[in-house]
Amino acid sequence: MTETPYQIKLEDVFEGPMDLLVHLIRKNEVDIYDIPIALITRQYLEYLDWMKMMNIDFAGDFLVMAATLAQIKSRTLLPTHGNEDEDEDPRLELTRPLIEYLQMKSVAEQLAERDLLGEKTFARTYADEELKAFEETDQVIQVGLFELIDAFQKILKNIPEDHKIDLEADRVSVKERITEIVDMLEEKGTLTFSELFEAGVEKRSEIIVTFLALLEMVKLNLIKITQHLTSGIIRIFYV
């Protein structure tokens, strides 16, 4: 009996539309004050299409942002009339909230780094100590959804095109794959992103199930994911 397609909900766990914009700006290495709106809009819509294909359920805010990008793009194509107020760069409507968002996010990250009351009441687990040691000895960053999508798309590019995506015909369910990943992490403590997809994963459908299992484990706070700034290697820790 086949399972219904598995769906991952992004609400209250993963990043929102502003995070996707920041990710695209950083990925393309563009100036926040000179955003190539056509390029960013195209890539933004490609991410949404990809998430739909993967049954990743995103909030309506993503669609609102898509409409905003399309509107700004259309306004940049209109001729100017020499009126200072009317001819203000429409991209500023995107730049201003992005700057405010980055400022708030920076403050939130600083607050998150402070010790929480009672945090040290319980002893750290081995995995916690291993993650802490890794973060102290290597320059790493926490990985978000869109960095994972980029890494996963690179994995898929190495899979033959004749392997079709069929989530209903998966031999291994997402829950079963989560159990397998937990077993591997309990044994090793940590895995690289590429190692995870090499471990018993042969078909394209199994690779997709592995990715969905990884997202679900993030939602359940079973794992933490970091990326080495120099090598770009993504590493998964069981916590």
Keyword list:
single chain; 239 residues; alpha+beta; Arc Repressor Mutant, subunit A; 2 domains; two-stranded parallel sheet; globular
Structural features, described:
There is one protein chain. The protein is globular. Strands 3-5-6-4 form a four-stranded antiparallel beta sheet, sandwiched between helices. It has a two-stranded parallel ribbon with strand order 1-2. With 239 residues, the chain is of the alpha+beta class. The chain starts with 7 loop residues before the first strand and ends with a strand. It is 54% helix and 9% strand.
Summarize this, please?
The chain has helices at residues 17-28, 37-53, 60-76, 92-112, 126-137, 145-157, 174-188, 193-198, 204-219; strands spanning 8-9, 56-57, 140-142, 190-192, 223-228, 234-238.
The structure class reads: alpha+beta
Report, as a whole number of angstroms, the end-to-end distance.
Answer: 33 Å
Which consecutive residue ranges, at least 5 long each, have pLDDT under 50?
Answer: 119-126
CATH topology of the largest domain: Arc Repressor Mutant, subunit A
Helix content: 40-55%
CATH architecture of the largest domain: Orthogonal Bundle
β content, as a range? 5-15%
The dominant shape is globular
Q: What do we call the CATH homologous superfamily of the largest domain?
A: Structural maintenance of chromosome 1. Chain E
How do the strands line up in the largest sheet? 3-5-6-4
Sheet with most strands: 4 strands, antiparallel
Instruction: List how many beta strands DSSP finds.
Output: 6
